[in-house]
Amino acid sequence: MAKSEDYFKGKTLFLTGAASGIGQATSYIFAREGANVICADLDGEGAERVAKEVDQRGGKGFAITCDVMSRDQVNQAVNTGIDHFGRIDFQFNNAGSAIRRSKFLDIDDELFEKTYDLNVKGVFYGMQAIVPHMLENGGGVIVNTASMAAVRGGGGHSIHYASAKGAVVTMTMGVAREFVRDNIRCVSISPAAANTHFQDISTDELKQSMTNDIPIGRMADPEEIAEVVQFLCSDACPYITADTIKISGGGGFR
Ligand SMILES: NC(=O)c1ccc[n+]([C@@H]2O[C@H](COP(=O)([O-])OP(=O)(O)OC[C@H]3O[C@@H](n4cnc5c(N)ncnc54)[C@H](O)[C@@H]3O)[C@@H](O)[C@H]2O)c1
């Protein structure tokens, strides 16, 4: 929640990965608070569906089809969003995936590169597109989706992905520090396993073993992560920047 009443009303969030899971839940939570939500996703139909639902839930939605692996498409999406709503106050660089599970010795160049293109370059392009706009506007908040995988290493199934999310944590810290005096806060979130389509690539056995490792005993619901994203964008936490906020169900590991 924000410190000031109606803090999000009329303010604008640009987010990627809006068509599903954590991004969809975040879109709806910002809609609940009366925000404008620019829903960007590779899945254009899904983005349209979520943007329409944002309209129904008290916000104003705007859908954009965008592949975050393309610098041109990310620049265009951000600029189109600015043209539409006049400005962007918050950016949530959230699109990401482990692509597929793989043991370390089976990670080939293609998997490694695609994982970094999506999870690292996608965030890098997003931040490079928005920072000049935020500097011009006198500030803003950027939230990037990392993962508890970054502190666990992903051994056995996801080292490609865990290391990419480690880069997100580090890049977030660097951007936060470079622009700390410009009223731009930049934070990352590190969720444990969450109940979304992200887990479609996990076998039942892997899902069970991940759940067993989470002290709270279950995966997170996407809404439980989205509420934290909104808090981080709010005026209630001006001292939080650079850090990764763990949403880990008790440490995320035993
Ligand atoms: N679900 C989990 O267990 C979990 C845990 C930690 C971190 N995360 C991270 O959370 C973020 C959101 O994932 P989710 O759990 O909501 O998964 P999800 O699969 O439900 O949603 C991911 C969304 O990203 C979109 N997307 C994929 N590739 C894209 C691209 N190239 N350009 C634009 N959009 C693209 C998809 O279309 C989808 O709408 C990801 O960065 C993921 O790595 C997920």
Q: Tags for this entry?
A:
45% helix; globular; alpha/beta; 254 residues; 7 strands; binds nicotinamide-adenine-dinucleotide; 7-stranded parallel sheet; Rossmann fold; 15% strand
Describe this structure in words.
The chain has 254 residues and is of the alpha/beta class. It has a single domain (12-247), classed as 3-Layer(aba) Sandwich (Rossmann fold). The protein has 8 helices and 7 strands; from the N terminus they run βαβαβαβαβααβααβ. It has a 7-stranded parallel β-sheet with strand order 3-2-1-4-5-6-7, sandwiched between helices. α4 links the parallel β4 and β5. The radius of gyration is 17 Å and the shape is globular. The protein starts with 11 loop residues before the first strand and ends in a 7-residue tail after the last strand. The mean pLDDT is 97. Nicotinamide-adenine-dinucleotide binds at residues 16-17, 19-23, 41-43, 46, 66-69, 94-97, 118, 145, 147, 191, 193-194, 196-199.
